[in-house]
Amino acid sequence: MYHQHFDTCPSTQSYLKDNWSTLSQNDEQVLISTNHQTSGVGRRGSEWNNFENAIAFSMSLKPSDEFSLTSLELGVLIAEFFPKKISLKWPNDLLTPDVKKCGGIICNVVDSKTIIAGIGLNLYLSEQQDFDYKIPPGGIFQTPPQSSNFKEELPKTLAEYIHQNRLTNEEIQQKWNAHCLHFNQNVIIVDHNEKVEGVFKGINHIGSALIETDQGLKNIMSGSLFFE
Length: 228
Hints:
Blueprint: E1 2-9, H1 12-18, H2 20-23, E2 30-37, E3 53-61, H3 70-81, E4 87-89, E5 93-95, E6 101-111, E7 114-124, H4 150-164, H5 169-179, E8 186-191, E9 194-203, E10 209-213, E11 216-220, E12 224-227
Helix pairs in contact: 3-5
């Protein structure tokens, strides 16, 4: 795996996308990480705020066998890398068990064989800043990382773990449901002008949310999920 680390980078995702043709000549597997990400981008173009003890990195990888399961597979593997520290919120949020957002995943398609995945993780929050979040920010750990080089070392270790532990479609579906924080809970999914309310019953074989409504079971492919 080719790993390039920067002290400061506007967006590891944008850097890897913009320089893919050059970087991919070094290795099929490319990792870009940074000490400070100044213009991180989240899902649907939202800003990703970079906390002091957070890691931000982007990596190339082959998509899951079922293309649309890729970000969900990454969520499962990250949750298993940090056992009992991370739960999953559909479609691509990472939460602490006490329902605080500690990370997120964004995937962009290069071609049919390559995905660029951007991952941001709050390891530890030294200060609780007052951001206007529906879900408050949280950290994976209670104490700061021990290594002074964790922003370079941990992305590499986690990226290698992901590459070495890819899952089948059936494993993704089963394990994602097991790690889901809101399984069998009442939720609302909003996608543009459409709103669906009901009980979250997990994901199906392509990663759609299964919502049990008064009108029956509905499959929701995209949207923002809210729960109490």
